[in-house]
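Before we proceed, please read the two lines closing this message. Tell me what the token row says about the fold.
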Amino acid sequence: MESFIHNDKRSSPRVPVQVTVLGEVGDRQIAMYSDNISLDGIFLHTKDFVAPRTVFAAQVWLSEDEEPLFLYLTCCFVERTANDYGVGAYISGMSSYDRTQWETFYRCCAEAHAEQQHHLAPSRRTLRNRCLVVVGGALRAPVVELLHKHGLEVSDTPSVSNALSLVQEKKVDAVISAMRSPATDGLALCYAINSRRLQTRTVLLTDSASPIDFWLGVHAGAARIIAKPCSAQILVSRILEVMERPIALARALSAEGRSRGDRAVELGQMSRSSAQLPVPRRAAAAQPAVQRGSQYFSQVYRFLSKRMVGSTALGSTLPARSRAVASE
């Protein structure tokens, strides 16, 4: 098995290709499919959580008629949408024969994609004049510079309340916030935006890459939850992908994810006593949406942190009463 990562392959462009992948993570077999590929890596979608820096064996089917390629992948990036996890992985090991097959397959796909883009170029959508609000310096300067180069107007605001005011005053295409930090509460921001059905997308950034954080982000209504650290190029590409998605579709996917989470919760093994998890009271309805969301998700996080030590099966441990926040 040979190492696959070389400097010349790191700069290879990603090509949108869907292949079937079966990963062996620990003692689990996980079904995956690709979103795009490069010479040295694959971006995968899966229903299962894969922790960053995990190295796992995988089988990749380039077509139904051929034997799979056998390789090792190293997880370098994790994100969460309402539908599934996104996993960026580098190819860290592959036989010489399989490497030749992979490179041939990639080059054929890259040529076909380039030809397609040539014909579609005149009608491609542009991101120019789109407005992006960043809360509390959630994005580093190199990321902001790259977003500017793509034609986005990026505004920085110090607090969640200010961000909510901006979204209500003018057209804002997306809001980027840390999930939790001393100055910001991204979960509360998502809750406020979705409860008021404001026409914008929300992206949360988290430092923990914990299944708890991903689940809470989906339940709050975030269009995407991205785990840091990740490179500026990857982060920008994921934000641009969110910006291209219609708001109505993003909101529908978010609602679907919350509904799926509640159904999974109902199958859990934990007792469903109503006293287990605090639920916002009707008397609190007069509170600002940001404050209600902040209080609720802080209580949920403390609850889950106590219950989930050593567990990654979040869906089987959270009481179904948590759906109350989505229906307010």
